[in-house]
């Protein structure tokens, strides 16, 4: 049952601003109706009778927001990152598309999605933007499973009316009508699990479909997610499919699905040209889902995150399961820092060996994975007063430090070394969902 | 007790050549006096009474060789990868040097090294090249602990007679005499744990010390390990300390510690100039310890591994604990592949968007971590006839695949997804040491 008023006791770490962590040592966070009422060194008199979850000696961090992942791909994570046999075809042809076509079978979907949701629970993630498949029943099932576990999420029935394989392809009419039927099914069904329009990417969706989806997005006020400028081949393909574009992003923007009318989460954004960068910085409801491990793995590239942030573009982190092999945003955060170091070394420092270090700090990466992505839901991703309480409790005892450490150091160790064994409890929207 | 004749039953995966994996499905590996006698689909008649370790349904891989790690740094792994407060100084000043100075205390050393050795056991690594500290008793203790557990290793008492902190600095005379005393203590003491001369790097060792160590190396026939071209600042510093060099490597080569007279393992080798590259390719007893995670983290750079291999330079993989935060060579292998993709994307493909993909394959990375590094010990790192039997048994049941997979796919998943929980047993030199 949801308690309307309670407190968490422990040491809190969060990033209201990306520049630095704030630590609240051995304190009480009071939660009222799902939101942070305040953090106090001692429990105030007025609250002395409320229930206190005692996590003394533990670190408590905001829940993380995974802004891009493919739930059906969890079943075959960690495969095909390094295809050595050319006869196997591409990763899409050999793994992604054949496996996604199996979600027409609701039994398979239940088995695979249950496993995904169970394992997602054992991470620091509390909410995310999820791609399902083209299948309406399986997508609805995924939403049910997420809602049952208490997750907050946007979930998309994927749209694909071209360039797929038989069994994973809709006609344009089907794709539109199934999307509408799905929205009718789910739009008001779950409190915290909501639909997101999900044209897979331009090569998968005809102009006619994109036009219809853009209209639905505006009419029903549904946010959108898609892929943008993930690879050089893909960008060329988009130019072939839609001659006359100055940048790939225009292929979404012309259909009102680039953060002009409704929020739009664009995954990857590794190779923006100047036109795209400029367009992105002007679209205030657009958010980049930065997926560093996936980008390294698929193309060796790194999205220019520091540049996006400087230009005021919103950025969150994404695992891009199964473009990466992990659901852990702690790992993705570490990858984001390493990727920014590589980008800096191979660009700015390449031009000037004495170039000032210009890389993501750990607090910036932490911000991206919490408050950065959380902005899609409003006041989410930090423990500031009034924010929705998403929290994860971490136990560092397994890491057995031999020395006294600062909170910053303890947190860095947890980010770099901890795994599912170290997660003690999880709260979403002020409700304990794990532990 | 060591059995002189036994068999392992299971599915074997190894890389006699870097180009591809060889899988021996559901077979028997016969081990005689610590070496692979052969792999058979059925147990030959002559062996029908020997003990068979039954690992049916498990994958068995060669033990891995960690060619560069600092055992004393394990205690504070995962800290200071991202120093945000300039007042803290460098990673060396804040963490590495103060912590290493604590190994003057044998009680602290015992606590920390026991933890390291215990946790190293829970990895796929069976042998390695380890830096201890400058302290002779603690170095000897580490060697004892490793020998007790059955590891094969080269261990170095570190030499440092300049540019360190008080408490972690020897006089030149001390450094030489302690090195000789240590060699007297350990050179013939352990069957599989051997000494390696370890001038930390040029900035830590005066010319006089280097000259003495080079003479000792030749006189006693002791291999050498050190750091080379890890960072741009370091390379400049070496040029300042030793004016007139054409490349950093010469600072080792002029003292016979660059693979001319005795084997030499050089860690990192990220930024070779043409002179260094040429010198490396001519020194046939030189091996590069490639440490991709550490290099990303410290400088954002990637060692040109494909170039080294093409030029015939020996290469192994190193965790560089605690320049990285992991002892897992499975993780380092994955990092090596990602790093090679970034290097390719930011160099060859930057020049030519249509450049042929030129990255480390998974089998190449596997080869580096097994037979590549293993070459330092001779016939080590694969299951070819006559090779020393180092083997690790992996259980994939926790990964719960929903589909039938090829052996290649099963192995890729284990490399990318498994952790200490999935390691069932370990053999070193034909002796079970774990599980």
Number of domains as seen in the coordinates of chain A: 2
Which sequence of strands runs across the widest sheet of chain A? Answer: 3-2-1-4-15-16-17
The strand count of chain A comes to 17
Q: Quaternary status of these chains? A: homodimer
Terminal-residue CA separation of chain A = 14 Å
- CATH-defined architecture of the largest domain in chain A: Alpha-Beta Barrel
Number of discrete helical segments of chain A:
14
| Major sheet size, sense and barrel closure of chain A | 7 strands, mixed
Mean pLDDT of chain A: 96
Task: Identify low-pLDDT runs of chain A.
Answer: none
CATH superfamily of the largest domain in chain A: Metal-dependent hydrolases
CATH topology of the largest domain in chain A: TIM Barrel
Query: So what's the overall shape of chain A?
Result: globular
CATH class of the largest domain in chain A: Alpha Beta
Helix content of chain A: 25-40%
| Structural Rg of chain A | 21 Å
Structure description:
Two copies of one chain form a homodimer. Chain A contains 14 helices and 17 strands. Chain A is α/β, with parallel strands linked by helices and 435 residues long. In chain A, β2 and β3 (35-40) form a beta hairpin. The longest helix of chain A is centred in the last third of the chain and has 18 residues, at 329-346. Chains A and B meet through α2, α9, α11 and α14 of A and α2, α9, α11 and α14 of B.
Characteristic key phrases:
17 strands; 4-stranded parallel beta sheet; 435 residues; 7-stranded mixed beta sheet; TIM Barrel; globular; alpha/beta; Urease, subunit C, domain 1; homodimer
